[in-house]
Design a protein that fits this description.
This protein is α+β, with helices and mostly antiparallel strands and 306 residues long. Helices cover 39% and strands 23% of the residues. It has helices at residues 8-20, 23-30, 34-48, 64-89, 104-121, 173-179, 228-236, 246-254, 284-297; strands at residues 53-55, 60-62, 96-102, 125-131, 145-149, 158-165, 167-171, 195-196, 204-208, 214-218, 224-225, 242-245, 259-260, 266-267, 270-276, 303-304. The strands form five sheets. Strands 4-3-5-15-6-16 form a six-stranded mixed sheet, with helices on one face. A three-stranded antiparallel sheet has the order 12-7-13. Strands 10-9-14 form a three-stranded antiparallel sheet, with no helix packed on it. Helix 1 crosses helix 2 and helix 1 (8-20) crosses helix 4 (64-89). It is elongated, with a radius of gyration of 24 Å. The termini are far apart. The model has no long low-confidence stretch (mean pLDDT 88). InterPro entries: LysR-type_TF_proteobact-type, LysR_HTH_N, LysR_subst-bd, WH-like_DNA-bd_sf, WH_DNA-bd_sf. Pfam families: HTH_1, LysR_substrate.
Length: 306
């Protein structure tokens, strides 16, 4: 194998082409000519000795060998970046970017404000905040840290359990005054429910009774939404009853725009976790943000130790 083509520049070009699937787009991003991008790829493939990319007139895709090589390149480039950053951190105050991904509604309602507080303490650290409910690949998308609600599949990420997000059933006074208050969980099937279409099992509500018994009640509604903030607006507007996280509606409960329904019966809490790319965990600015989030997120309404 000829190693002369295995430069970090060629690896970076290859990684961006693998992620973008378009040579001209990568050329614009890197500020180089498309011919240079092509030359980097050709030299890399020649050095490795196998085709890494399959090219058509419209799209560039990874070969099987390219997929494996891409994953290894990501680790190499991350380690190179980490080594440089740790050397800088040893001589000066932490600076640079941290990429944080967060569940969308939680990010809008609370985490954005927390980031303001963090940057007031560490003005040289830039935070790139990505709000999404999708289960993204942290390494592939260049994310350092992710806040996630819900159970997590097996992961190579470093996991920090922040606790559980407690939920309750709520409805607007305007809706309850017209339709009456349910007296027993079984009554819920006769009420309009604001349904989260992107949540598995949203056609039923699972409640824990005071004696610990689980009750499963089928529900339905004429309004289905795929975002927590839309559910919040729908509940406040009196479009029905629904289970919701306390942190999402605590202010509406405080000012009387929502009321708790069937307070003795609670939907099961949802795990809240912090995922960290292991190779990034030792970088000073990442560690500072992680420590800050661990301390502050636990203070949010309804977040309790597991």
């Amino acid at each position: 194998m000829d190693n002369t083509g295995l430069s970090l520049d060629r690896m970076r070009t290859f990684v961006r082409v693998a992620e973008r699937g378009n040579l001209s787009m990568v050329a614009r991003e890197l500020g180089i000519g498309q011919s240079t991008v092509t030359r980097h790829l050709n030299e890399l493939e020649e050095a490795v000795g196998v085709p890494l990319l399959s090219r058509t007139t419209r799209r560039v895709t990874l070969t099987d060998e390219g997929s494996r090589y891409y994953a290894n390149c990501l680790q190499i480039l991350r380690l190179v970046e980490q080594a440089a950053e740790e050397a800088r951190d040893a001589r000066q105050a932490p600076a640079g970017a941290v990429r944080l991904s967060c569940t969308a509604a939680l990010g809008v309602m609370h985490v954005t404000r927390l980031i303001f507080e963090f940057q007031d303490k560490h003005p040289d650290i830039r935070v790139d905040l990505n709000l999404t409910d999708e289960r993204i690949d942290l390494v592939r998308d260049g994310v350092d840290v992710a806040l996630r609600l819900g159970p997590l599949a097996d992961s190579a990420m470093k996991l920090h359990a922040l606790g559980e997000s407690h939920r309750l059933l709520v409805g607007a006074p305007t809706y309850l005054s017209v339709h009456g208050r349910p007296q027993h969980p079984a009554d819920l099937s006769r009420y309009e429910t604001v349904v989260m279409s992107n949540v598995a099992g949203s056609d039923r509500v699972v409640l824990s009774s005071p004696d610990g018994t689980s009750l499963i009640i089928p529900v339905s509604g004429k309004l289905r939404v795929d975002h927590g903030l839309a559910a919040r607006e729908a509940l406040a507007a009196g479009r029905g009853i629904g289970p919701t996280h306390l942190w999402l509606v605590h202010d509406l409960l405080d000012d009387g725009r929502l009321e708790v329904v069937l307070g003795d019966y609670r939907p099961s809490p949802i795990p809240l976790s912090l995922l960290i790319v292991p190779e990034r965990a030792a970088i000073a600015r990442v560690r500072l943000l992680v420590d800050f989030l661990v301390a502050e997120v636990s203070k949010l309404p309804g977040i309790r130790p597991s």
